[in-house]
Each structure stands twice: as structure tokens, then as C-alpha cells.
Write a structure and sequence with these properties.
Elements: H1 2-61, H2 64-79, E1 84-90, E2 101-110, E3 113-123, E4 128-134, H3 166-179
Length: about 200
């Protein structure tokens, strides 16, 4: 009887293991599949964000406000000692992941100072700029220091040359001839065809 009881217990344990193993394996597969779907969803969202940022930035560069600011750069370069720059900036720090709009700025940099000149709103569903609003920020311009005008250095007038005697002229010619390197004599080129040979 003890033997029968042990066999039944053993058979029940084996049966439970046989039925439980496939069920556990199935749940592992489901979990892995769900993880893959989540990762793919995250990649798609990141790719969509990248595309939206690129489209938005390119549209900022085509705005007439951006072109006007670029035209002002030449005047700023003349007035200041540092190099001014104009940028199109897209704010990628979205607090709400499901936001339908993006913010961007036309930014001016002058030395260490930076100012957002225009704030721009982009509609992600329509894929176009909805609003352009000036922020009112202005940079403090550093006045260019007047550079001292360089005057031409006074050149010393050459002393009048002495008239050379014939002996001095001959000596100079001799030294010039010695300084010049003798030219190499041209070597005849062998096996060169000429028009006369034909």
C-alpha cells in the first residue's frame, strides 16, 4: 500500500511538471514579445520626433524673420568686436510626450551673450509653423574699440649711389658669373621618334 501511494504521488508530481512547463514557457514568450513591441514603439516615436525636428528647423530657416536677422549680421559685425551669429533652435525638451506642438527659437549669439529673438510654434499634425512671435529680448552690443589707423612706416630714403668705376663693375660681373650654376647640357634622347623618321 505504501508503494501504491508513493507511485500515485510520484505520478501526480510528474503530471503536474509536464503540464506546468509548457505554460511557463508560453508566458516567457509572451513577455519577450511584449518587450519587443515596446522597444519598436519607442524607436518609432523617437524616429517621428527626429523627423518633426528636422522639418521644423528647415521651416524656421525659410522664414522671412530669419532672413531679416541674417541681413543685420553685416551691420553687427561692423559695430562690435565679436562675431555675431544667428541660429535656428528647436526645443527638444518636451515635458509632455503626446504634445501636438513644438517650440523653436531664432537665437542670436554675440560673444558670450545669447538671446532668443523670436519664439516659433510648430504644429506636429499639420507639419507647419503656426505662430511666430517676437520675444523682445535684445543683446547688449559691445562697441567696437576704435582700432588705431596704421600709418605707413616712413622709409629711409636711400643714400645716393656712388658711380662705380670700371674695375668695380668687372668684379661684380665676375662674382655674378660664379654665383650662377652652369646649366646641364641636354642629353640626346634615344629611341625618340620624330616626324622626320616616318
Amino acid at each position: 500500500m505504501l508503494r501504491e501511494k508513493m507511485t500515485r504521488t510520484y505520478a501526480a508530481a510528474v503530471a503536474m511538471m509536464l503540464f506546468a512547463t509548457p505554460a511557463m514557457a508560453q508566458t516567457d514568450r509572451d513577455e519577450r514579445r511584449d518587450e519587443r513591441k515596446e522597444q519598436q514603439g519607442e524607436k518609432k516615436a523617437a524616429n517621428k520626433d527626429r523627423v518633426d525636428y528636422t522639418v521644423f528647423r528647415r521651416q524656421i530657416l525659410t522664414l522671412p524673420e530669419f532672413a531679416d536677422e541674417r541681413k543685420k549680421l553685416a551691420e553687427l559685425r561692423k559695430k562690435t568686436s565679436s562675431v555675431p551669429k544667428i541660429y535656428a533652435v528647436v526645443d527638444s525638451a518636451n515635458e509632455n510626450e503626446n504634445a501636438t506642438t513644438l517650440l523653436g527659437y531664432i537665437t542670436e549669439t554675440l560673444g558670450d551673450n545669447t538671446a532668443n529673438i523670436y519664439e516659433i510654434t510648430f504644429d506636429r499634425t499639420a507639419k507647419k509653423i503656426v505662430k511666430v512671435k517676437p520675444t523682445g529680448e535684445k543683446l547688449e552690443q559691445e562697441e567696437a574699440e576704435e582700432k588705431p589707423v596704421r600709418k605707413a612706416k616712413p622709409t629711409a630714403t636711400p643714400a645716393p649711389k656712388k658711380k662705380k668705376t670700371s674695375e668695380e663693375d668687372e668684379e661684380e660681373e665676375d662674382t655674378e658669373e660664379q654665383d650662377e650654376k652652369p646649366e646641364k647640357p641636354e642629353k640626346p634622347i634615344k629611341n625618340k621618334r620624330t616626324d622626320d623618321d616616318e
